[in-house]
């Protein structure tokens, strides 16, 4: 399960001034508007502020976050917003916090791969209430609320029924802050335990594929809260299981999302490596 501050299911009722449908509608609209802005500017794939070996700082990241933020604040001007592009700014006091990843999979986007998305989640008192992940070039919108089903383009989805780890298809990634032995020992372990490993390059998209039953699990040793805030809720509402295996400062974590059937085997294989 997720750690106590990121549970998918609130322990008590929402603020009576809010409703789950309202929050979900805004999350979906914000993700869609951000994605549509990026999609309309595909000709600007090379329009960057900086390019590093392990990362790309894209101008459209900033613009997409501004687009999503405008949608949210037009509906809820008093809510706090934690965005990838402004993550170092202090948050205003609010029980309700929106979490935005304007382009998850920026390097994929930069190179012309369609495996990228825009992710928006909302938490009430630290607990996930609603989330949306929009994959523009694949024309897919994934959504979930804490009290409703997980959906793709309005159709309910569910995780796979795989319960043998040796027959599981698992996605993973290489922590961009350490591409040496630290990162690749996890890749070797995923290769050892599963049927086939995949590195696809966009955490939220990978998790949505787990929710849709197209992958059996996803693990990464270093992602951020904006990578998983919406997608983890979608996985859990599709019947899967999510877990923070290790928390780090500045919103970073080692994270596992599975169909539930292979979760214990994945966790038991990977968790010891985090303490090496």
CATH class category label of the largest domain: Alpha Beta
Say what the CATH topology of the largest domain is: Fructose-1,6-Bisphosphatase, Chain A, domain 1
Q: What is the count of structural domains?
A: 2
Structural class: alpha+beta
- How can the largest sheet be summarized? 7 strands, mixed
Return the average pLDDT rounded to an integer: 90
Low-confidence stretches: 3-13
Write the layout of secondary structure elements.
Layout: H1 20-39, E1 48-51, E2 56-58, H2 59-75, E3 80-83, E4 96-104, H3 106-111, E5 117-124, E6 127-135, E7 140-145, E8 151-152, E9 155-156, E10 169-172, H4 181-193, E11 196-199, H5 203-211, E12 217-224, H6 225-237, E13 241-247, E14 252-258, H7 263-270
Parallel strand pairs: 3-4, 10-11, 10-12
Antiparallel strand pairs: 1-2, 4-5, 5-6, 6-7, 7-8, 8-9, 12-14, 13-14
Task: List its traits.
5-stranded mixed beta sheet; Fructose-1,6-Bisphosphatase, Chain A, domain 1; alpha+beta; 7-stranded mixed beta sheet; D-Maltodextrin-Binding Protein, domain 2; 14 strands; 7 helices; 276 residues
Verbal overview:
The protein is α+β, with helices and mostly antiparallel strands. It folds into two domains: 4-156, 2-Layer Sandwich (Fructose-1,6-Bisphosphatase, Chain A, domain 1), CATH 3.30.540; 165-275, D-Maltodextrin-Binding Protein, domain 2. Helices cover 31% and strands 28% of the residues. The protein has seven helices and 14 strands. Strands 3-4-5-6-7-8-9 form a seven-stranded mixed β-sheet, with helices on both faces. A five-stranded mixed β-sheet has the order 11-10-12-14-13, sandwiched between helices. Strands 1-2 form a two-stranded antiparallel ribbon. Helix 4 links the parallel strand 10 and strand 11 (196-199). It is globular. The model is unreliable at 3-13 (pLDDT under 50).
């Amino acid at each position: 399960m997720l750690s106590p501050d990121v549970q998918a299911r609130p322990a008590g009722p929402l603020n009576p001034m809010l409703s789950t449908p309202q929050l979900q509608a805004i999350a979906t609209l914000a993700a869609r508007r951000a994605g549509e802005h990026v999609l309309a500017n595909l000709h600007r794939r090379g329009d960057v502020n900086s390019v590093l070996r392990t990362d790309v700082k894209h101008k459209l990241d900033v613009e997409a976050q501004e687009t999503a933020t405008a949608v949210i604040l037009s509906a809820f001007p008093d809510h706090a917003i934690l965005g990838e592009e402004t993550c170092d700014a202090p948050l205003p006091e609010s029980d309700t916090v929106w979490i935005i990843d304007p382009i998850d999979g920026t390097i994929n986007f930069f190179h012309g791969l369609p495996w990228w998305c825009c992710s928006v989640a909302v938490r009430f008192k630290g607990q996930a209430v609603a989330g949306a992940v929009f994959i523009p070039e694949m024309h897919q919108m994934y959504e979930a609320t804490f009290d409703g089903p997980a959906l793709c383009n309005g159709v309910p989805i569910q995780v796979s029924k795989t319960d043998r780890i040796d027959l599981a298809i698992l996605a993973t990634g290489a922590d961009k802050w350490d591409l040496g032995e630290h990162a690749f020992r996890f890749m070797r372990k995923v290769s050892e335990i599963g049927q086939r490993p995949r590195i696809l390059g966009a955490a939220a998209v990978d998790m949505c594929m787990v929710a849709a039953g197209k992958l059996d699990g996803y693990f990464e040793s270093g992602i951020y809260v904006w990578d998983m805030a919406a997608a983890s809720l979608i996985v859990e509402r599709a019947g899967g299981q999510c877990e923070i295996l290790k928390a780090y400062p500045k919103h970073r974590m080692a994270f596992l999302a599975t169909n539930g059937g292979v979760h214990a085997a994945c966790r038991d294989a990977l968790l010891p490596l985090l303490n090496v």
